[in-house]
Write a structure and sequence with these properties.
Immunoglobulin-like, L,D-transpeptidase catalytic domain-like, elongated, Big_10, acyltransferase activity, L,D-TPase catalytic domain-containing protein, palmitate
Amino acid sequence: MEKRVMTDSKRRRGLMAASALLGGVLVLSGCSGGDDKGGSSAQSSKKSQAEVDEAAAKDTSKARIAITPKGGADNVSINRGTKVTVTEGKLTEVTMTSTAGDKVAGTIAADGKSWKPDAQLERSTTYKISATAADSEGREAHENGSFTTVSPDNSFIGNFTPDDGSKVGVGMPVSINFDKPITDKAAVQKGITVTSTSGQEVVGHWFSPQRLDFRPQEYWKGGSTVTMKLELDGVEGAEGIYGVQDKTVTFTVGRNQVSTVDAKSKTMTVTQDGKTVKTIPISAGAPDNPTYNGQMVISEKFKETRMNGATVGFTDDDGKGEYDIKDVPHAMRLSTSGTFIHGNYWGDDSIFGKANTSHGCVGLNDAKGANDPNQPGAWFFNNSLVGDVVIVQNSPDKTIKPDNGLNGWNMDWAQWKAGSAV
């Protein structure tokens, strides 16, 4: 019994020793082997990543490109809203295209720090920009963006007269017709300036929410230069409706020519710089259709044009025009409603200076075909500018309304200034 106990005891001690030895080996294997192999691998991996990061940092360009407007923007200006700039580098290439694939010409500044389009963009168009720049070590940076310009529905423009670079008469106002009604007239008018080298005060007058004219108190000084600046880009003319124009227009004023039509004596006296240069017999409106009185400005000139009474309300019982002349010579428009001063080849020579026979126009003797320079109609046409003033007096009709054509001179200065929004 005792011997068996001793044997069991020895066996247990042996098993414990073996177990401890195996445990120690396993622990040793687990710790030593795991630490040596696993620890060495992790350290190697971290070191390798650090080296990669350091190398990548050294290889990254310092150039920072900024594209304006921000990607995804809409209702962007078609004028000054687009540019690319760079810091700590210089632009090497900028490409701008529309979604249709049309390239937009642009210029990188001489210092390489910026780029902008060369011309106005199109409305309601999506553009993409791709830019590349390099830092002082030649390392490249890239940036891309896209945006959409303002749509016609969300913008307004002003169609104006006279044209840039034109030469006009002393009565020519600056007249702007907007394609949408303007509710914030003050904001829009503040975005437009009209100045003259003559030093004359120039004031704007709103005839309607869509028409704004500018003029001085008296006619422009002959020989002066007038400049209009449209700085309407981004100006909110009505709720959600923005201007897109950024433009400077310059025109010159010719000699001071004013022609006075006396409907009673049936003559027209032409003066230049205050001196009478010609007196011409005329035929004004007949008693049933007299010519408007007042100061009228020549707004258009046509060597020949068609005049159909139906277009201005003169019709017969069948609804046809009371007259339809397809080759009226030397016609110059005086009103929107259809008043002209023009050559007349169909009337007898005896009516000029003797009888008023027209439907409201002022007629001068002329030849069919508009090719005889010796005719009064030809002389007046050749010696007139758009913007010259024709004054009609002593007619039984009323004075023409200031907004019927470019005829704001029929409003006194106080009334004119009262129509300004600023």
